[in-house]
Design goal:
two-stranded antiparallel sheet, 10 helices, 304 residues, alpha/beta, N-acetylmuramoyl-L-alanine amidase activity, single chain
């Protein structure tokens, strides 16, 4: 720090020595005052005048982060369009079902008729099971939806007593969660040569505990969005054996749909018994695309 006050001016100091005492004092007082003013205004931290302008900078800097913080706090909201939404994912079957045949063969009422609690599902010819596939896609889908801000619940996550839940319970979980959307993930077990995916919509059912009438329109919209985005992201064609090329099917024999009180669809992501489809279903990279396609369909539905 350098000062320019008279006390540091050698010529003035020399003049003070030659001047009479009174004159020296008269010259010294204004100079000292000027030095004090300069010190207080410029040199002293937190001083007045120019020093205050310097001190104001931290205040200005403090305001900027506050504004940035407001923008930052708004950005996650804009980037999380499903904040406040609840999505229930139902991974079809359970990897342990095949060891609990007596339990899963118990009959449950799905409104239109009685049906097995659950089944083992299908598998590829090489033994990659549908249950493993559905749980893997469900995990990937959950991650994608949570990044969008959704609250995601799974009907099971390998944490049950190795089997189930029954199809009736799967519907109950979505209903109890008041899900804004629910989807059951599956893969088909049709003959070789039958290829492609399809989305299953609930039929109009009003029987026993089943009444799908309040969710028909919303479920169809959900199914159409999922069908469109799944095809776009995965590059897969709609089923060549179900749905007449539309990628959509309507059924009244599925308890998970019949008993749902929230918008819900099933998706058969491909045919595990067809070698070409099986090559896709067993690929982790493709399963990520499948999850992405389903996610984009759900996001589109929930954003209206």
């Amino acid at each position: 720090m350098s000062y320019t006050g008279p006390e540091f001016d050698p010529p003035q100091q020399r003049r003070f020595r030659r001047a009479p005492l009174a004159v020296g004092l008269a010259a010294l007082v204004p100079g000292a005052l000027l030095g004090w003013v300069l010190y207080e205004g410029v040199g002293k931290p937190g001083g007045s005048g120019a020093g205050q302008a310097g001190a104001a900078a931290p205040k200005s800097a403090a305001v900027a982060p506050s504004d940035d913080a407001k923008v930052a706090s708004a950005s996650p909201s804009a980037a999380r369009p499903l904040q406040g939404k609840v999505v229930v994912i139902d991974p079809g079957h359970n990897p342990g079902n095949f060891q609990h045949t007596s339990e899963i063969n118990q009959k449950v009422n799905i409104g239109t008729n009685w049906k097995e609690c659950d089944t083992t599902g299908t598998s590829t010819n090489a033994g990659y099971s549908e249950a493993r596939f559905t749980l893997d896609v469900a995990h990937r889908l959950r991650t994608l939806l949570e990044r969008q801000g959704a609250t995601v619940k799974l009907t099971h996550d390998g944490d049950r007593p190795a089997w189930g839940p029954c199809v009736t319970k799967r519907a109950e979980i979505g209903n109890a969660a008041h899900a804004d959307a629910a989807i059951s993930i599956h893969a088909d077990g049709a003959p070789e040569g039958d290829r492609g995916f399809h989305v299953i919509l609930p039929a109009s059912v009003h029987s026993g505990a089943a009444d799908t009438r309040p969710i028909l329109a919303s479920s169809r919209t959900l199914g159409e969005r999922v069908e469109s985005d799944f095809a776009k992201v995965t590059g897969s064609a709609p089923s060549n054996y179900v749905g007449n090329g539309t990628g959509l099917d309507v059924r009244k024999d599925l308890g998970g749909l019949n008993l749902s009180t929230v918008p819900k669809v099933f998706i058969e992501c491909g045919n595990m018994r067809d070698s070409k489809d099986a090559a896709l279903l067993t690929s982790g990279a493709w399963r990520q695309k499948a999850a992405q396609g389903i996610s984009e369909g759900i996001v589109s539905f929930l954003r209206g």
